[in-house]
Design a protein that fits this description.
By secondary structure, the protein is of the alpha/beta class. The protein has helices at residues 2-22, 49-56, 72-81, 85-88, 114-121, 155-169, 182-187, 193-215, 242-245, 270-278, and strands spanning 29-35, 59-65, 127-131, 147-150, 173-178, 222-227, 246-253, 260-261. Strands 4-3-5-1-6-7-2-8 form an eight-stranded mixed sheet, with helices on both faces. The protein is globular and about 45 Å long. Keywords: Signal.
Length: 297
């Protein structure tokens, strides 16, 4: 019996060693950039040299998917909370409270987000939340964020603020929410010249954030993820067309494979799971997301 126990312990030790080897080491910072209403369909033809350079030097998918409905709050919640709406309870485009009782709650009173995991497990770690659309605020526990700035629909202000925070505070986790190109999609339409023109501005903003990470001297120990909540069709979204459902998912930085087109299915709640995995945070059983390990060497 003692021999069997020794063998079991040895096998467990080997398994843990292999698991540790599979996980990228020395990732100390994750920067998540969310572009509202950015349909994956637009990226191949868009003039976005900054984002395409991240793709060239990183891993990417243009077939990642939102949850349904393909709308904002329900998807930003899913992206940050590692689960879908039937679990976390936020089901509408502008959900500020769960329409369905959440299946789990953190000690901060909301369904566990990647921010609350970081706060609970690494209480001294600095986190930053900078958001342009005010609907982001109710989705992240105030007590779980170290720095929190509401940009009030001003993307350039959000980028300027995020740059200052990254350079001076070097947060472990930074989420920058940008409201475009969703505004142009609603006002003028998806697949329009104006929409593609707006993506050039989005690209410049992404490039400035990446430069801030380099200027802060943390690029060698950082992972940057660029994604969206949903795409769009005509002047709206929320439906089931691929233009509305498929979103870009681009990851770049420490341990990431270069120029790798990701093959496995990615759902937006896999983003939170990937961040938790990178930062070595234990995920709650209520989460449904899976780390996108294929992206890493």
């Amino acid at each position: 019996m003692s021999n069997m126990r020794a063998i079991t312990m040895m096998l467990m030790s080997i398994w843990l060693s292999l698991a540790a080897m599979a996980q990228p080491s020395k990732v100390k910072h994750v920067i998540l950039i969310g572009c509202d209403g950015f349909g994956a369909y637009a990226l191949p033809e868009a003039e976005m040299p900054q984002l395409k350079k991240l793709m060239q030097d990183g891993a990417w998918s243009l077939t990642a998917r939102s949850v349904l409905p393909s709308s904002s709050a329900v998807n930003w919640a899913s992206l940050l909370m590692g689960a879908g709406p039937t679990v976390h309870g936020y089901t509408e485009w502008n959900s500020a409270v769960p329409e369905i009782r959440s299946a789990d709650t953190s000690r901060f009173g909301l369904f566990p987000s990647v921010f609350s995991l970081l706060k609970e497990q690494r209480p001294n770690a600095v986190s930053a939340l900078v958001y342009s659309w005010q609907g982001i605020g109710p989705l992240v526990e105030k007590e779980a964020t170290t720095i929190r700035v509401a940009g009030k629909d001003k993307d350039d202000f959000c980028v300027d603020t995020a740059i200052t925070i990254i350079r001076t505070q070097k947060p472990v986790l930074t989420f920058v929410h940008l409201d475009e190109p969703d505004g142009v999609g609603h006002n003028i339409g998806h697949r329009t010249p104006e929409y593609y023109k707006e993506l050039q501005k989005v690209d410049a903003r992404i490039g400035r954030i990446v430069k801030a990470v380099e200027d802060a001297g943390i690029a060698h120990e950082s992972v940057i993820i660029v994604t969206a909540d949903h795409g769009g069709k005509g002047k709206g979204h929320g439906g089931k067309s691929l233009d509305e459902v498929q979103i870009p998912w681009v990851v770049y930085g420490r341990g990431v494979q270069k120029g790798h087109a990701l093959k496995r299915p990615i759902i937006t709640y896999d983003t939170a799971a990937t961040i938790a995995w990178l930062l070595k945070l234990k995920m709650p059983e209520s989460w449904r997301g899976l780390p996108v390990k294929e992206a890493f060497r």
